[in-house]
Specification:
globular; about 10% helix; about 180 residues; mainly beta; eight-stranded antiparallel beta barrel
Length: about 180
């Protein structure tokens, strides 16, 4: 019996500051983290990932502009997407994503258009309003310290457009509409 793959998306989001929103499907919602510097393919680089509110599954398809005066206001593109495997299920007697999230240590294998391979999310600060995690590339066959997809592959995998093109071409929508 084949298991349905869980989806992920990384949205490049030019809001109050440019960042990348990592969203992992977990039990019908998107668990989300804002990564200020974006993901890396270099295992020696640890990237801050600030946990933010869960999102509905429909949010994974949003590319456009949110009114500047609303939560999340700014321009967003779909930077990467695909599905992922929960590596913790193999390591810890079938540990689910919900439990891994609660314990503060998640290991996934991304099958994306830009990112492939194993990644770790590990919580290191819980006492904040928004828990802080580290997002780290595992040292596997997909690791590449020379590759920098954040700078070399900046545009949308959905439309091929840049943030500027989306900003110039799209009318802003309400955050409730996205």
């Amino acid at each position: 019996m084949s298991k349905r793959k869980r989806q992920f998306v990384i949205q490049k989001h030019d809001a109050s500051q440019l960042h990348y929103d990592l969203r992992l499907e977990v039990d019908g919602v998107l668990k989300s983290w804002a990564i200020p510097k974006g993901p890396s393919t270099d295992p020696s680089e640890k990237r801050l990932a600030i946990e933010v509110d869960d999102h509905d599954m429909e949010a994974k398809d949003f590319e456009g502009r949110i009114h500047e005066d609303e939560y999340g206001g700014g321009t967003m593109l779909i930077w990467d997407r695909g599905d992922y495997d929960n590596l913790m299920a193999d390591k810890k007697d079938g540990m689910g994503m919900k439990k891994a999230h609660k314990e503060g240590h998640i290991e996934v294998y991304l099958h994306g258009e830009k990112l492939m391979g194993g990644y770790v999310l590990t919580r290191f600060r819980e006492d904040e309003d928004k828990p802080q995690w580290l997002f780290i590339k595992m040292d596997d066959d997909e690791a590449d310290a020379r590759r920098n997809p954040v700078s070399t592959e900046p545009d949308s995998v959905e439309s091929g457009r840049s943030l500027k093109e989306i900003h110039d071409e799209e009318e802003p929508v309400s955050a409730e509409d996205d």
